[in-house]
Write a structure and sequence with these properties.
The chain is mostly helical. It has two domains: about 1-80, DnaJ domain (Helix Hairpins, Orthogonal Bundle), CATH 1.10.287.110; about 125-243, Pectate Lyase C-like (3 Solenoid), CATH 2.160.20.80. About 25% of the residues lie in helices and about 0% in strands. Helix 1 crosses helix 3 and helix 2 (about 20-30) packs antiparallel against helix 3 (about 45-75).
Length: about 240
């Protein structure tokens, strides 16, 4: 059961998600963690991406196999569905004997394996924190809540910030060179004079963001990915308001 829950967590889904949701989550995460989207000269990120892809593929395959078997079972049987095999004890299973009195030299009887300590939770709420001039290069801040945080002058080059919440955050003068801000929430964010060269803002919400003076071009060439980004009401680098 714990293994099954882990597969859902890997795909960022709630237990019991549909097969369609499993497939869509796999597509989204495989796109995000594809090694071609990350700096080729950063071996640490490349290795991390390969590991993530392996976990994502395994989770999708296991859940898809389980749901396909369950669907076939429901279609081929008029009786109520049985529990999956991995919930049933094998034919050779025998209940454990009642605990006997142990001698001083023997280990105490245990009816089940000892529980492993839970890993420490990572604090995802960093709203309002002061990270001004901090070196956060190559960090993984995906999914964190950094709304209204002070990141002015911070080094965020090559930082992975998929689905990060930066609403109202102060990013003035920040270095976001090649930062991955896919699907990020940047509403009303202050991006004045920031370096966005090579950054990926595909699908990001930039409504009302202030981009005045931000570096986004080399000559006439735009060097920021803005595929599917929402720029409604954003103040562009030249001072014009995007309608």
């Amino acid at each position: 059961m714990r293994e099954l829950e882990r597969y859902y967590r890997v795909l960022e889904l709630q237990p019991g998600a549909t097969l369609e949701e499993v497939n869509q989550a796999h597509k989204d995460l495989a796109f995000v963690w594809h090694p071609d989207r990350l700096p080729q000269n950063n071996q640490r990120l490349q290795q991390k991406a390969l590991k993530k892809l392996k976990e994502i593929n395994e989770a999708r395959d296991k859940l898809r196999s389980l749901k396909t078997k369950k669907h076939r079972s429901l279609n081929n049987s008029s009786t109520p569905p049985k529990q999956p095999n991995y919930y049933k004890p094998s034919a050779s299973y025998k209940p454990p004997a009642s605990p006997q009195k142990q001698s001083n030299n023997s280990a105490p009887y245990q009816s089940s394996p000892p529980k492993q300590p839970s890993p420490p939770k990572v604090n995802s709420d960093l709203s309002g924190k002061d990270f001004s001039s901090a070196n956060l290069s190559n960090k993984d801040l995906s999914g964190r809540n950094l709304s209204y945080a002070n990141l002015s002058g911070a080094n965020l080059s090559d930082t992975f910030m998929h689905k990060v919440v930066l609403r109202g955050a102060n990013l003035s003068g920040a270095n976001l060179f090649r930062a991955n801000l896919l699907l990020a929430d940047l509403r009303e964010a202050n991006l004045r004079s920031s370096n966005l060269i090579g950054a990926d803002l595909s699908g990001a919400d930039l409504r009302g963001a202030d981009l005045r003076g931000a570096r986004v071009r080399s000559g006439e060439r735009l060097l920021v990915k803005l595929i599917g980004a929402n720029l409604g009401g954003a103040i562009m680098p030249d001072g014009t308001v995007h309608d």
